[in-house]
Amino acid sequence: MSTWIVLIFFFIAAALLAVWVFDALFPDEARRRLADLVESSPHAARRVRRNHLIDVLARVTEPISKLATPDKDSLDEITLLLAHAGLRQKAASAAYFGAKAALTLLLPLITLTVLPLLKPGQQTFSLVTVLVPAAIGYYLPTLLLRMAVKHRRQRIIDGMPDAIDLMTICVEAGLSMDSAMTRVAEDFTISNPVLGEELKIIGMETRAGLNRALALRNFYARTGVDEVDSFVTMVMQAERFGTSIAEALRVHSDTMRTRRRQQVEEAAAKIGTKLLFPLILCLFPGLIFVLVGPSVIQFVGLMSTK
Fold this sequence. Notes:
By secondary structure, the protein is mainly α. It has helices spanning about 1-25, 30-40, 40-60, 60-65, 70-85, 90-120, 125-170, 175-190, 195-205, 210-225, 225-240, 245-270, 270-305.
């Protein structure tokens, strides 16, 4: 039984390696030209490589991706999470479910292959050795996806006050709101490429003829950040009531910085409570053993001599 598992595992690994090597040695012409155009921008080059890896993963895992594909409601939720993580290409959902299915099948095979080598002559097959790796393989992509979404949202939250300050300066200098966002997107290409890319998409949508309000709402839909929602609402209300957009941007930037400072102070105030349980469970037992241990040893020795 273990021999067949080893053969199947090595066959799958060899097939995946062959696909990767073939794709690396013979890239398609469109991807090569696109990489040449964006090689001056490290973030854009990384995005091209990431999209290519997603396409390769989607093609490789296409036969088994349907095993992990849920119903339409759950599929729409995962697609929205992928968009929040910056994975907006069509093959992202197929690659995600393909990775879940592949890991769910491969991790138990790897476990059943490695355990006989570590413990030769012992019976290593059990329900736990199959279900636990399968559960890890099934939920690991979801965990990594949520971590990526959290990291990307935090990058946007950290960059929003500075971006709004730059927009304020551009608007006061005489630029329109669309031109100001385009200028900020260019300046944020290096310092905060995530936010710069989103602002650049807003500029491209408005130049393509899309309404600014709808473009800003799409900005919130792509990120799912509450700070972006408040920014979009502020801009739309300032345009609707005819108030000064520069003054509104300045006040909103100060409000965001105050809110972020309050969140940091709240997190700092919780440190004492969070450290209480690790201290009780980890530090105090060792401290008590060091302080009371010698006395206990002397007492036991004294009682044994009597």
